[in-house]
Amino acid sequence: MPDKSIITISNKFNKINDYNLICEDTFKVLPQIPDNFADHCITDPPYNISGYDFKKEIGWLKSNKYWSEQKNFKKIEEDWDKFSNGDYEKFTKLWLDEIFRIVKPNGNIIIFGSYHNIYKIGYLLQKDHKKIINSVVWFKRNAFPNITQRMLCESTEHIIWAVNETDDKAKNWTFNYEELKKYNTVKECGKCKKIIDAENKYCPNCGNNIFKTKKLQLRNLWDIPSTPAGERKHGKHPSQKPIQVLERLIVGGTKKDEIIIDPFAGSGTTALVTKNLGRKFVAIDNDKNYCKIILNRLKDGYQENMI
To answer: pLDDT digits over 255-304, tens only?
Structure first.
């Protein structure tokens, strides 16, 4: 039987259940949510990769059959991702202002981006005097190659971790330091105490073959592959994030039973991991097809990559 606590495809904000999936324009929903309602926000907003300021049609892509046909390369071209540069800044400020109101003081605000938009978002956070505690770099080892051969291959995305308070007032934000250590488990040589690669059977420094496991503090460079096919079995979204990335953020930045709001839910990875880890969520997206993907993922409860 389906989980009755999930609002399947709702067109308005209702009283909170443990899991709220709302299929509607986020700017219609956010104003209906009370002040200080959510504990945190984790979201993946449009990057404006499809925007129209200075973005030209890729002429060579049409003429290059290898990439367009054999490799099935498609430029991201989504209506929800198209803004002029000026409109994108206004759009970002509008949703950020709502999130500043909805998230409790000292709650975490964690935002995904790429070089296309992350500097703009960081600028707006700083302009509003929000405390930024970390910048996470997600290294995608299997990222798609740069086929223009006119710039470096873009193999990273970025995550800004901010606190919903000013620098001078920010305090006691959630950061589960010890819990995050499980994502940085290494081998320590029992003889020379040097840290070595997990695949080594002998210590390259002293030849010893007796090791002990050690958990170190998690760094801000995360080497995690792009979203695997198994996580897309209910449908595809052009910017779907892998479960492993969201798991680290939710484990590290939230507590059980807290409410996490995601105003740009996409394929629902934040909602799914939030549910699996015993948190509550409000997930909003205006695309019915994506909402159906989210609903099916929530019902399926896919947890294969959860540690």
So the answer is: 999 999 999 999 999 999 999 999 999 999 999 999 999 999 998 876 54
| Share above pLDDT 90 across residues of the chain, in percent, rounded to a whole number | 67
In the structure encoding, which two tokens stand for residue 106, read together?
């000292």
Give the confidence band of 22 by pLDDT, cuts at 50, 70, 90.
very high
CA 305 to chain centre: 15
Whether 273 contacts 243, CB under 8 Å: yes
Predicted pLDDT at 18: 67
CB-based contact 28:16 (threshold 8 Å): no
- Considering the domain delimited by 6-175+226-300, tell me its CATH architecture: 3-Layer(aba) Sandwich (3.40)
CB atoms within 10 A of CB 221: 10
- List all residues 6 or more positions away from 270 whose beta carbon is below 8 Å from its beta carbon: 42, 43, 44, 241, 246, 250, 260, 262, 281, 283
Pair 278, 284: CB distance under 8 Å: no
Q: CA triplet 105, 109, 290: central angle to 5 degrees?
A: 130
Alpha-carbon span 105 to 94, nearest angstrom: 18
Q: Which two tokens stand for residue 276?
A: 């699996």
Strand partners, 108: 163
- CA pair distance 108, 111, nearest whole angstrom: 10
Domain ranges of the chain: 6-175+226-300
